[in-house]
Amino acid sequence: MKYNEYCDQIVVQAGLFAQHLIDADLATPVPTCPGWTVGQLVRHVGGAHREAEQVAQKGRPPGQDDFRDPTHFTDTDPVQLGAWLVEGANRLAAELRAAGPDKAVATPVADQTTKFVARRMTHETAIHRADAALALASADRLETGSAIGSEYGLQAELAVDGIDEWMELCALPLHFEVHPWMRELLGPGRTLHFHATDTQADWLVDLTGDVIAWRHADEEAAVAVRGTVLDLLLLIYKRRPVETVEVLGDRELLDFYLDRVSFG
Asked: Smallest Cα–Cα separation from 199: which of 235, 236, 160, 233?
């Protein structure tokens, strides 16, 4: 995806996020973010936007960040909170557009540019929007027997790029230093193939070497995972269970991979 598309999608995803909040109970727990409510989740995302705005403007994050752990927030007005989220997304997108894709900024990875920030904030917003939608849909089902107003969808191109970003970030060698247990993934014959059934996209994860490697390839693997690109995205982000996709081959390897791999 192009840089301006990321800037646009930050705003689009925030707007869709705010729509999920209409008439929502912000105290609803978010199962995929244990310990957080929907209101706290929104505060986390809006805070991330405001931190990223400072990064795009000044090249570094602010010294104080109250939003990474939002458990002290107790918001009660979904309309105001949704507007606050959209405001921050617009401010971030405007700052990123003004900076351009190649401005040098501080990031936790080798890509020290605003393009990384724009891409990361796009998928941060989209995935956390899924958290809210799934939590509110689950609450609707409990109360009414059906999901109301919390359906979640994502453009195929955006979902593909989200998986690409996940693969890139999860393959960073620094993970072995921060999370030594990830080295246990490596071993002979350990390959995984993720195949999107609704678009032309495949990912081959190779754990047979000294590092985690991946490539776009439709190849035989120890385990093959088939599903829509959105199902695959939500699966690797641990937002949906394995039962939502088709698994052929070594299910234990897939479970082990999903358990150990994370860039958060």
From this structure: 160
Residues sharing a CB contact under 8 Å with residue 136, sequence separation 6 or more, in sequence order:
20, 24, 28, 38, 149, 150
The CATH number of 3-153 is which of 1.10.10.10, 3.40.50.300, 1.20.120.450, 3.90.1150.10? Answer: 1.20.120.450
Cα separation, 221 vs 70, in Å, equals 41
Sheet strands side by side (includes 213-215): 213-215, 202-206, 191-196, 223-227, 246-249
Convert the pLDDT of each residue in 192-238 to its tens digit: 999 999 999 999 999 999 999 999 999 999 999 999 999 999 999 99
Which of 83-92, 144-153, 194-203, 219-228 is least confident?
144-153
161-260: which CATH topology? Nonspecific Lipid-transfer Protein; Chain A (3.30.1050)
Write the CA distances from 241 to 41, 187, 238, integer angstroms.
21, 25, 7
Query: Environment class of residue 63 by beta-carbon count within 10 Å: exposed (0-12), middle (13-18) or buried (19+)?
Result: exposed
Element (H or E) spanning 226, and its range? strand 223-227
Residue pLDDT, tens place only, 3-48: 999 999 999 999 999 999 999 999 999 999 999 999 999 999 999 9
Collect all residues with Cβ–Cβ distance below 8 Å to 224 and sequence separation of at least 6.
192, 193, 195, 247, 248, 249
Confidence check: pLDDT of 118 > 70: yes
Could you state, in order of their start, the residue ranges of all structural domains in the chain?
3-153, 161-260
pTM of the model as a whole? 0.93
